[in-house]
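Intended use. Records like the one below are meant for learning the mapping from a protein sequence to its folded structure. Do not use them to infer anything beyond what is encoded.
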Amino acid sequence: LDADGRYHLALLELAAGQPGAARAEADTVLQSEPRHLLALYVAAEAERALGQPDRAAALYRRYLDAYDPDSLGSRPEYLQHQPVLPRAAEEARAFLRTMGR
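Structure written out for the chain above:
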């Protein structure tokens, strides 16, 4: 699977109540592409589902550090999921505010 396929699989695993498996899929992408927005987002969501808010916060921070609205068309999967990326950035900011970060 490519990064987009792993993102989709991770979303399915989250929906099926398997956040550990979702995190593993995200980690596979992040090993080779540590700033991959979709992988960072789904990894953060998996950590939230696992009850690990500090880990989720760290991943959301990485997401925001990598997020650049001007480059959202730089990858085919970013184009396909373009509406998700700014919403994920807002969700990350909101979560970090609730964590006092």
